[in-house]
Amino acid sequence: MSQSNDPNNLNDQSSVDNQIDEPIKNPNEPHRPEKKERKLTALQSGLIGGAVAAVLISGVGYAVTTANDTDDQISTEEVQSIVDEAVSSAQADNTASSVQSTSLDVTTDVSETVANVQDSVVSVVNMTESVSTYDLFGFTSPTQEESTTESSELETSSEGSGVVYKVDGDTAYVVTNNHVIDGADAINIIMADGTQVEAEVVGSDPWTDLAVLEISSDVVTTVAEFGDSDSLKVGEPAIAIGSPLGSEYATTVTQGIISGLDRSVPVDIDGDGTSDWVANVIQTDAAINPGNSGGALLNAAGQVIGINSMKVSSDQVEGMGFAIPAGEVQTIIGELEANGEIVRPELGVSMVDLNRVSLDYQSQNLQLPDDVDGGVYIAEVSAGSAAEAAGLQADDVIVEFAGEAVTDSASLRQALYQQKSDASVEVSFYRNGELQTATVQLQPQNNSSATQ
């Protein structure tokens, strides 16, 4: 039988505000286009200078030789007109040459890289059933139940992106985000050439926001290669490919740089407005828009270094997109291929962030020291759980787990999910104001359980 307490103003979820400390640009500061200094090369200066000199010499010579003939004399205005025309022509020729050279450089650096991998990036269409009810006269609000008929059809609910990363015989594997396929009754894949094929879910994981799909390998022409996300450096090039706003804009390419590494971003898994998890991600300023989720983030060699997952959406912030590192992606999709799920350890408690427990309850019931301002309050201990076996009780407040400080539910999950499902770990907690320690033998997570 489980233990449970219900303190005043207590909710069952953590309350970390799902926000990021964002750099704020002063909205009152006017936009000032960056001034670019224009410099001419020595060759360009020589060409223009030669043209001007030639015009001046010929013009002056003509004026001198005709000085005694007032009817044929060239005016100063005509000389200036000839000079202006020559200079403009020389500048136009050199500008065209510069543009051509720049285009060649871009083709070498980006276009060829994209061409080698672009066909491995696909659109993922989340299809859900739409049920319509009609009476015998075709109305959708029948008055008599026996006179109604129902019809259902699949319609597009949402769209995202995915990456073909493996072919094994007749089967090809696609990685995408869990939130892209969540709630789908069917999933369609649209290849880069427009070919459509049905997909089956191999496995998915909401905590890392990854999912693996399988499709027929007959439609696959290109398979992406993973790169080493651990060796990335801030400032190196990054290329994002995906389907922003849906398959109409499939295989859209944007370019930027790696803006940051090992960023910790709070994530709301269950949609209640509070943080449930902290994702460690790559930050990039390559544009990542709705529909890009599940697409590829590439390095300059065309290798997948991350799976695009989310962005900061704010009027005050631009260029903050995030991708799941390739190293983590490969670990998760390997387990999803093998088991169809990620087996994680379970503690067996219903937990609440300490800052969501009323101050009166903390003072009267928990009797915590004044310097304790963070932790996880245990609202309930499940019968037969690892926590119960270790002696943990309702009203205990966990402040450390496996040597990691616990400040809220997200940090406890982070520390818990780093352990093996049968690991033994030390837990520090307060009970009746006293700090105590217990050893917990973790158990594999029961997916039907609401505890952690």
List the helices and strands and how they pair.
Elements: E1 3-4, H1 42-65, H2 76-117, E2 121-135, E3 148-168, E4 171-176, H3 178-181, E5 186-190, E6 196-205, E7 210-216, E8 237-242, E9 252-267, E10 277-284, E11 296-298, E12 304-311, E13 321-325, H4 326-339, E14 345-346, E15 349-353, H5 359-366, E16 376-381, H6 386-390, E17 397-401, E18 404-405, H7 409-416, E19 424-431, E20 434-441, E21 443-444
Antiparallel strand pairs: 1-16, 2-3, 2-5, 3-4, 4-7, 5-6, 6-7, 8-9, 8-11, 9-10, 10-13, 11-12, 12-13, 14-21, 15-16, 16-17, 17-18, 17-19, 19-20
Helix pairs in contact: 1-2
Descriptive keywords:
33% strand, 6-stranded antiparallel β-barrel, single chain, globular, Pdz3 Domain, alpha+beta, Thrombin, subunit H, 452 residues, 7 helices
What does this structure look like?
This protein is α+β, with helices and mostly antiparallel strands and 452 residues long. The chain contains 7 helices and 21 strands. The strands form 4 sheets. Strands 1, 15, 16, 17, 18, 19 and 20 form a 7-stranded antiparallel β-sheet that branches. It is globular and about 90 Å long. Pfam families: PDZ_2, Trypsin_2. Residues 22-37 have a biased composition (Basic and acidic residues). One of its GO terms (biological process) is proteolysis.
Indicate the CATH topology of the domain at 229-339. Thrombin, subunit H
Q: What low-confidence regions span 5 or more consecutive residues with pLDDT below 50? A: 8-74, 101-106
Just give the CATH class of the domain at 229-339: Mainly Beta
Query: What's the average pLDDT?
Result: 79
Largest sheet: 7 strands, antiparallel
Helix and strand sequence: EHHEEEHEEEEEEEEEHEEHEHEEHEEE
CATH superfamily grouping of the domain at 229-339? Trypsin-like serine proteases
Indicate the radius of gyration in whole angstroms. Answer: 32 Å
CATH architecture of the domain at 229-339: Beta Barrel
Total beta strand runs: 21
Our estimate of the beta-strand percent is: 25-35%
Share of helical residues: 10-25%
Distance between the termini: 17 Å
Number of helices: 7
Based on helices, strands and strand pairing, what is the structural class?
Answer: alpha+beta
The shape is globular
